[in-house]
Amino acid sequence: MTNPIIQLFRSKVYTAVLLLAILLIIGVLGFRFMSHYSWVDALYMTVITITTVGFGEVQPLDDVSKIFTMFLILTSVVIVGYAITVITEYILSRNNIEELKQKKMQKKIDALSNHIIICGYGRNGKQAATKLLAYNKPFVIIEKNKDTIDKFQDDKMMFILGNANEDEILHQAGIDRASTLISALPNDADNLFVVLSARQIKKDIRIISRASQETSYEKLKLAGANNVILPDRIGGDHMASLVVVPDLIEFIDNLAIVGETNINIEEIKAEKLYDVSKQARTIKDLDLRHKTGCTVIGYKGEHGEYIVNPEADQKLMPNSKIIVLGRPEQINKLNTLYKLD
Q: Please, what's the b/e burial string for 100-135 (b: 16 or more CB within 10 A of its CB; e: otherwise)?
């Protein structure tokens, strides 16, 4: 959305250009019909008069032409002066407003903690941002294409203009306070460099990287990436699965619906469900099905082990998580009940 101050100056610039065009037309017509100049000579006389260059007349002027020329000079001084002032203010205002916008954006970024950094706003970066928005997760996008930033930047999308390969840009994005970095650059070499830089700056940050080539998988893991995603492999596997188990895949696709009111799967830390100072509770004790309508479909233990469809007597240990499934309104009820928003 265009800044209203910029719009105001832009309208003034249009007015100034229109006045200059009208002045030019009046001058040409005046010299053409009052002094009987040719069209080229009339244009020449108008330009040197408006710009106050001071060259001599094409031919001597009569009294009427002299009066017209004086009128043209006085009028042009006002209009040209106004045009120069407006155009100069417009250029300066654009620079100042852009600088103020950047400072305001940086102030917001500096206030973030435990946020996510997305490097690159291409197809994968855009999908990641959309998902994070749906879950109200704070994130910052590093993008080197200014046109992309101008097109998508708003109150919800915070961008930093620069190359994610540079440590200074990573620091600007608050990597020392971030919890996760997603490197979604199109080039594997760039992703490798970002992973190396990020891991060197912050040892405990979680890093998720995109890879185009399977040969880059191990290199990115060695560089420090916790997870490496191969979009082409996932895409091919998804298409084949639609042939083998189409109904199951369509059901899973429905679980991936993104939107402020369409979230139907949630991951919850056990600490949010019970007081860790008390004896660990069980999934049965929570009674989520009766209270919210949600169903517990998974459990991740304190040591990272996963249990699909856990038993009701499964204890919720510290640092564990449960995964619940439900309709959007049931997930909202769950979030409200346990104040998860």
A: eeeeebeeebeebeebbbbbbbeebbbebbeebeee
> Per residue in 190-217, pLDDT tens?
999 999 999 999 999 999 999 999 899 9
Instruction: Report the alpha-carbon angle 280-283-287, nearest 5.
Output: 115
Query: How do 321-325 and 265-269 pair as beta strands?
Result: antiparallel
Q: Are strands 321-325 and 295-300 parallel, antiparallel or unpaired?
A: antiparallel
**What is the end-to-end Cα distance of the chain in Å, rounded?**
29
Strands (E), 43-131: 116-119
Looking only at the bridges linking them, the beta strands covering 206-210 and 227-229 are parallel
Alpha helices (H) in 111-212, listed in sequence order: 123-134, 146-152, 167-172, 188-201
Q: What is the pTM of this model?
A: 0.62
- In angstroms, the CA 288 to CA 69 distance is 88
* Residues 6 or more apart in contact with residue 124 via CB below 8 angstroms: 184, 210, 229, 231
- Tracing tokens 């490496």 back to the chain, one arrives at 228
d(CA 324, CA 312): 13
Q: For 48-86, how does the pLDDT look when each residue is reduced to its tens digit (9 = 90+)?
A: 888 777 677 777 777 888 888 888 888 888 888 888 888
Q: What is the pLDDT of residues 229-288, one digit of tens each?
A: 998 888 888 788 888 888 877 777 777 555 555 678 888 888 887 654 455 588 888 888
